[in-house]
């Protein structure tokens, strides 16, 4: 890989990590507000194991 390809890959990875962190924050708030796990998974697109991680 050349330097530009590595830089592009790193930027994309950072964006994805930020999106995932945002979804986890939303899920945390939804849990606090009493949403069901099924609703949280449907709305955020997270897997059950991802949500269990924040409990």
What do these coordinates show?
The chain is built from three helices and no strands. The chain has a domain at 21-55. The longest helix has 30 residues, at 3-32. The protein has helices spanning 3-32, 37-44, 48-54. α1 packs antiparallel against α2. The protein is an all-alpha fold and 55 residues long.
Briefly, what is this?
This protein has 55 residues and is mostly helical. It has helices at residues 3-32, 37-44, 48-54.
Mean pLDDT: 94
Separation of the first and last Cα atoms: 40 Å
The helix/strand series, from N terminus to C terminus, equals: HHH
Radius of gyration: 15 Å
Q: Strand portion, in percent? A: under 5%
* Low-pLDDT ranges: none
Question: Please, what is the oligomeric state?
Answer: single chain
Helix content: over 70%
Name some characteristics of this structure.
single chain; 55 residues; mainly alpha; 3 helices; 82% helix; elongated
In terms of topology, how is this protein built?
Blueprint: H1 3-32, H2 37-44, H3 48-54
């Amino acid at each position: 890989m050349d330097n530009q390809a590595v830089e592009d890959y790193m930027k994309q990875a950072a964006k994805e990590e930020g999106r995932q962190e945002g979804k986890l924050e939303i899920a945390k708030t939804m849990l606090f507000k009493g949403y069901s796990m099924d609703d949280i998974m449907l709305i955020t697109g997270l897997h059950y194991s991802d949500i269990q991680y924040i409990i």
